[in-house]
Design brief:
The complex is a heterodimer of chains A (769) and B (260). Chain A has 769 residues and is α+β, with helices and mostly antiparallel strands. Chain A contains 28 helices and 28 strands. Chain A is 37% helix and 22% strand. Chain A has a seven-stranded mixed beta sheet with strand order 8-10-7-11-9-12-13. In chain A, β15 and β16 form a beta hairpin. The longest helix of chain A is centred in the first third of the chain and has 21 residues. Chain B has 260 residues and is an alpha/beta fold. Chain B is globular. Chain B is built from five helices and eleven strands, in the order βαββαβαββββαβββα. Chains A and B meet through α10 and α11 of A and α1 and β6 of B.
Chain lengths: 769, 260
């Protein structure tokens, strides 16, 4: 013990641990269960050291190990057809999946949650959510090109909602804007079920050439391991402070932030620096540091490569010199990356670091021993098989059962309920209802949020909010691009989880298809309550089963995602909220279809049929009702509709297309009119006659597999022939009217666009300033 | 009835063979974000974009320089305050003040760097509403006689995207009066002042007119289909999503026209 640093700690070495089997360890405080601790002792053949305990506890947490969901998530890998594998270059399990776009291009995208940090500290929680997902994308060798953020907050009028809303939106903007990544869309839902547990999900998408794909593995004995980017600090250390036995010094900061603090400038520099490393082929393997920090990066890199790694922990550059080995291993400080570099490339690697003024330190090297050895001043404090840390964590078959209350919830349909009394039918009532709908918290304009995000940077944004999906150009020469949409409906999923998850997928699929893009891949963020509650576990199991079945039927694979459990206020879980992101491909973004009409005289067609499906709808939500069964799922119809929308876009048969989902036809008509400030004249009598529904139902039902399109007169015959040939229901419901400045619907009092816009755009400023 | 152009359709480039030889430098600092966009705008205008690195000690053989937008050094100190001390900046300052009067355009963070460099007067503080704002902004060209505006006309209204956190232009009353008297207010916000800037000022120039800085982003309004959505609204009139291209053709007119 010669240096000042080492004086501060009682270093719990492997040798010491072997000699002191009976030392009490704070495994319970670190979140481990008795059986899990026993398993660690069995794996090691001795008690773990403090540092080993820190590593296992974070890596075997629900967040990192997926121990409650793993058995169910397998279905995403099992229910895969040849069609689904065709374009998949990298599947689930890596930092993010990679899909082939053609012409040598590949795209990678992933969605993740940052829910609980965003409740505790909305700004930093949301900001670092963006930071983390962007680093996942860089780790694959890609240049990040866009972000999206689905948000779910508590009731719009609850005092705490403003705190979370302001913080999360400013955090996403503050971080994302500073990275130079356009924010191209997302969602915003208000529901009191998210009051104590908002959902802040973040999606990032990146593009690369095929040859640039990088994987997280440490191969090649003798190759060097380097940590670069921000220094390691005391932020985001979960429970590591309970490892008090490590420290006998009380001068260190006692209160540390549980939420990580982001530095977007450091991340921006890290992006450019990594891309330069990739360009020069200077790294063999790379891994971002996210949850579980160095514990995760070393054990994953080692176990995915040749199986061994030797690391000297005192080489880690620290922001806070008082950190103990366990804290260094667990720290979730942001903006850090770990890479494996051959000895020949060391000088070139350092030159890139120096150019971008990024700090780095060489920690050790790859070995072929099959062991991850971490030393502190040469003393071995970790000696483990890295697979046991990274991959062989506990897996639970949690008990699940259909909740007893499910039947009574499903029996409680909206039609005829107390809340349904006084259903609008007179022209003035229907006009008021349409206005009320588009001004409601979930259906109002999101401009208050999206105007705080940069959607232009990069110069490749072909569509963004408020279009159904965001579209980004990938190749400036050819116009090749991608479209992205995220969707979820917690109410539908609460009413019927299997179907609800499928409806989320169907909507995202439809949104991508309305832009004219061919859906290719899925990423999902499964936000649920506690898996220890059999009701919630059933919701999760059913949602995964539903989603994986639907992916197979639609022929698009899940390439990555994340599971977020324990989302609840007290013992009340959130609505099960599987957020599904679908990525599609456009051969030429010039052909993309926006979600609104512009040209006077174009015909407006409604595709698909309408049934009386109001349960779980936005209208019933507005009336305070939640019960019954969500709209029927028909994936064959979704696929047929998608093909029509994609062909129509490619062949120039439609100029505008908007999917029908929450808020039904009423919402789609208003949004399509407000998109470019161009109105329409609509008549729904034929639809009502054909589908046997009244005008209210025609406007507010949320039947699936529907869209409205505007068709140039010259293309009408061709368009109708295409729909007929494919046997898909299509009906001309009106015409674009550029001069009138209003939306006229037969049987509904006239709606001026100015009044609709005012109602639509006033809601968020009213509550949030 | 106008037909709607496909997005990404080739933008008409002036058929001036001498243009391709014109070299316009685009500076990258750590944290610069819109450098690739500025380079694209230069290319679409018909010239050659030359990437410049903040740490370079020589400016090289460029005919004009663009300092693009972003968050150089994270804007953690006053925006532009650190970048102003980059080795390349002293060369740019010298060249801008020299007899040759190198044309320099500062966009957003670039404008902030130019005020910090004292090439332009005044400063930018946080938007009056304290939020980041991204919107399609209408501007009026108040002086179509600078190196970067000769292809516009006085009083012309253009739509370009605006996106900033610290965009409120301020200066003392005397400076503001002088700027107006000397015709150095180059752009004003029209219809809506998005950040509380004094006298609706969106952009200004130096006395010689070779250095121009503005908060809005003309480089995001140079390519059909990727420019301001507001330029597409309504069905009347021609699409207006490439209004910003004039900045980049103006400087070429200046350069090849021998006014340099």
């Amino acid at each position: 013990m010669t240096t000042e640093t080492t004086k501060k700690f009682n270093i719990d070495t492997v040798e010491h641990a072997a000699k002191t089997p009976d030392t009490e360890l704070p495994w319970a405080e670190l979140g481990l269960k008795q059986n899990e601790f026993d398993e660690i002792v069995k794996v090691l053949g001795r008690r773990p050291t403090g540092a080993e305990l820190a590593m296992y506890s974070v890596m075997w947490s629900e967040h990192c190990s997926y121990k409650s969901s793993k058995n169910h998530l397998r279905q995403f890998g099992e229910k895969v057809t040849e069609e689904m594998k065709k374009d998949m270059l990298v599947g689930i399990g890596e930092n993010a999946g990679v899909t082939n776009l053609g012409d040598g291009w590949a795209v990678t995208f992933k969605i993740e949650s940052h829910n609980s940090p965003s409740f505790v500290e909305p700004y930093q929680g949301a900001a670092t959510g963006i930071g983390g997902i962007v680093r996942d994308i860089i780790s694959m060798g890609a240049r990040p090109v866009a972000v999206m953020d689905p948000l779910r907050f508590g009731a719009i009028d609850h005092p705490d909602t403003a705190r979370v809303m302001h913080g999360a939106v400013a955090g996403i903007g503050g971080y994302g804007n500073c990275l130079g990544l356009p924010n191209i869309g997302g969602e915003m839902v208000f529901d009191s079920v998210y009051q104590g547990n908002p959902l802040v999900n973040a999606l990032a998408v990146g593009v690369m050439r095929h040859e640039d794909i990088r994987l997280a593995n440490a191969s090649g004995k003798g190759n060097k391991v380097v940590l670069f980017g921000a220094r390691t600090g005391g932020d985001g250390i979960g429970g590591a402070s309970v490892l008090a036995s490590e420290s006998f010094d009380d001068t260190k900061p006692s209160k540390r932030p549980a939420v990580q603090v982001g530095d977007p400038f450091a991340e921006k520099v890290l992006i450019e620096c990594c891309l330069e490393l990739f360009k020069g082929s200077l790294v063999e393997g790379i891994q971002d540091l996210g949850a579980a920090g160095i514990s995760c990066a070393t054990s994953e890199l080692a176990s995915n490569g040749d199986g061994g790694m030797q690391v000297e922990l005192t080489s880690v550059l620290l922001r806070d010199p008082t950190l103990t080995p366990g804290e260094i291993l667990m720290s979730e400080s942001q903006e850090r990356m770990m890479a494996v570099v051959t000895p020949e490339n060391i000088a070139a690697f350092e030159a890139v670091m120096d150019k971008w003024a990024v700090e780095y330190s060489w920690l050790g090297e790859v070995t072929d021993t099959g062991r991850l050895i971490i030393t502190w001043e040469g003393d071995v404090i970790v000696d483990v098989d890295p697979r046991t840390v990274a991959h062989d964590g506990p897996v639970y078959d949690r008990p699940f059962a259909r909740p007893e209350w499910q039947d009574s919830v499903q029996a409680n349909t909206f039609t005829g309920s107390v809340e349904d009394a006084g259903r609008p039918s007179a022209p003035s009532e229907l006009a008021a209802a349409v206005t009320e709908l588009v001004a409601s918290p979930n259906m109002c304009s999101k401009a208050w949020i999206t105007n705080q995000y940069d959607r232009y940077v990069g110069g490749n944004t072909a569509m963004a909010f408020p279009d159904d999906s965001g579209v980004v150009r990938v190749d400036e020469e050819t116009g090749l691009g991608v479209a992205l949409a995220t969707d979820a409906n917690g109410r539908y999923t609460y009413l019927e989880p299997y179907q609800g998850a499928q409806l989320a997928l169907a909507e995202a699929y439809r949104n991508v298809a309305t832009s004219g893009a061919v859906p290719m891949a899925v990423s999902d963020c499964l936000n649920f309550g506690s898996p220890e509650d059999p009701d919630v576990m059933w919701q999760l199991a059913e949602a995964i089963r539903g989603l994986s079945d639907a992916c197979m039927e639609l022929g698009i694979p899940v390439t990555g995602g994340n599971v977020s459990l324990y989302n609840q206020t007290g013992t009340t879980p959130i609505h099960p909220s599987p957020v599904v992101a679908v990525l599609g491909k456009l051969d030429d973004v010039a052909r993309r279809t926006p979600s609104g009409w512009r040209e006077d005289g174009q015909a407006i067609y409604l595709l698909g049929t309408t049934a009386a499906e109001l349960d779980g709808s936005e209208w019933s939500n507005l009336r305070g009702h939640l019960g019954g069964l969500p709209p029927k799922v028909d994936l064959a119809a979704e696929r047929a509709l998608g093909e029509i929308l994609i062909n129509a876009s490619r062949d120039g048969m439609v100029d505008g297309a908007h999917d029908l989902s929450e808020g039904g036809l009423a919402a789609a008509l208003v949004e399509s009119s407000l998109r470019y400030g161009v109105g329409a004249r609509i008549a729904l009598e034929e639809l009502m006659e054909r589908d046997g529904v009244d005008l209210f139902t025609a406007l507010f039902s949320e039947s699936q597999a529907r869209a409205i399109v505007s068709v140039p007169r010259s293309e009408e015959v061709r368009f109708k022939d295409m729909c007929t040939a494919r046997g898909f229901a299509h009906l001309r419901i009106g015409v674009v009217d550029a001069a009138g400045g209003k939306l006229e619907i037969n049987g509904v009092d006239e709606l001026s666009l100015d009044a609709l816009r005012e109602a639509h755009e006033a809601t968020l400023p009213k509550y949030f300033g | 009835m106008t037909s709607i152009p496909l997005i990404g359709e080739a933008v008409a480039v002036a058929a001036e063979p001498r243009l391709a030889g014109a070299k316009i430098g685009v500076v990258t600092f750590p944290g610069t974000l819109d450098d690739r966009d500025a380079a694209r705008a230069v290319r679409l205008a018909g010239a050659t974009a030359v990437p410049l690195w903040h740490a370079d000690s020589e400016l090289g053989d460029v005919d004009a320089v663009i300092i693009p937008g972003g968050f150089s050094y994270g804007d953690y100190l006053r925006a532009g305050a650190i970048s102003r001390f980059a080795p390349l900046m002293s060369k740019i300052i010298d060249a801008a003040n020299s007899e040759a009067k190198l044309p320099v355009l500062g966009i957003c963070n670039g404008f902030q760097i130019l005020t910090e460099s004292h090439l332009l007067p005044g400063s930018m503080i946080k938007n009056d509403h304290l939020k980041f704002i991204c919107r399609d902004q209408t501007l009026r060209v108040e002086n179509a006689n600078t190196a970067w505006t000769v292809d516009y006309t006085d009083g012309q209204e253009i739509i370009v995207p605006l996106k900033n956190q610290d965009g409120q232009y301020i200066a003392d009353e005397k400076t503001l009066d002088a700027l107006e008297a000397e015709g150095r207010v180059v752009f004003r916000y029209v219809g809506f002042n998005p950040n509380g800037s004094r006298r609706d000022i969106a952009g200004i120039s130096n006395a010689a007119g070779n250095v121009v800085g503005l908060m809005p982003h003309p480089e995001h309004a140079v390519e059909a289909g990727f420019g301001p959505e507001a330029g597409l609204s309504g069905s009347a009139g021609e699409p207006r999503d490439t209004d910003g291209l004039g900045f980049f053709t103006s400087v070429l007119t200046k350069i090849v026209g021998g006014d340099k």
